[in-house]
Design a protein that fits this description.
This protein is an alpha+beta fold. The chain contains 9 helices and 8 strands. The longest helix has 18 residues.
Length: about 260
């Protein structure tokens, strides 16, 4: 009987050890980078781009022609039209832009576009730019974290993108601040795996998401922050994460993970 009790106690201790959260955050998983992405296909406007191939695309018929051309491409899985009004709403909701810029832009300043979902990024930009009535194409790769984690706790970077943010005039989050954020996260119910994305990985993901080139590394290097990426297993965990760590020193924002 004594032997059985001891074995059960050891087994219980082993299970506890297996379930115990790690002492530090996990590194990004060793997984392939996504190939999929999205694109904004901006349409020509009268008086804005006089040299735009095929002229302005401000009529319903031209919109339909461009949409058919986009849907015919094999890498395109979905196409959605975005009006100037919707473009303005999205622009004003982009918290990475300065408050001054968001308050200055008007609906008439915004272009119409098609938002396109891509199974693979490939050479979509070149194909879409060849369609008459298209002025410009911006391609975005699917973030490395999409589908892997639920919430990103973005830390202060070397230089804040928004001069009105909590990170203005203070520099990047230091080791002690990151440790405090992690300790707060690891004790929360509903928070599972916690990954720390260090600077080099964050810049690589930013380049992929923005379809930047190697020359853009130096431009992004100062602005891209490190982040914690969290797997959540409780419906209300995201709001609790924001309440618990959103105001801690070194934290820029708590955001839903990029799709």
């Amino acid at each position: 009987m004594v032997v059985v009790v001891v074995l059960l106690a050891l087994a219980g201790a082993g299970v506890w050890a297996l379930r115990r959260p790690p002492a530090g955050p996990l590194p990004p998983p060793d997984a392939p980078w996504p190939r999929s992405g999205e694109a904004s296909v901006f349409l020509c406007r009268t008086g804005l781009l006089d040299d735009c191939r095929g002229g302005a695309a401000e009529s319903g018929a031209r919109h339909a022609e461009i949409e058919r051309a986009l849907r015919s491409l094999p890498e395109v899985s979905a196409v959605r039209f975005k009006s100037q009004a919707q473009a303005l709403l999205d622009f004003k909701g982009n918290k990475t832009l300065s408050v001054t810029l968001r308050d200055t832009v008007r609906e008439s300043d915004m272009p119409e576009s098609f938002e396109v979902t891509l199974t693979t990024v490939g050479d979509f930009r070149q194909k879409a730019e060849a369609v008459p009535g298209v002025s410009d194409v911006h391609v975005r790769g699917t973030s490395f974290w999409a589908g892997r984690t639920d919430v990103a706790v973005r830390l202060c970077g070397q230089r804040p993108v928004d001069e009105d943010s909590r990170c203005a005039e203070r520099g990047a989050a230091i080791a002690e601040e990151k440790a405090a954020v992690f300790q707060a996260l690891r004790t929360m119910e509903g928070v599972g795996d916690i990954y720390l994305e260090e600077h080099a990985h964050a810049v690589k993901d930013a380049l992929w998401v923005t379809s930047g080139s190697s020359e853009d590394v130096t431009k992004l290097d100062q602005y891209v922050p490190e982040s914690f990426h969290l797997v959540l297993d409780a419906p209300d965990a995201a709001e609790r994460v924001k309440r618990v760590v959103g105001g801690l020193p070194g934290v820029r924002s708590v955001d839903k993970e990029l799709g």
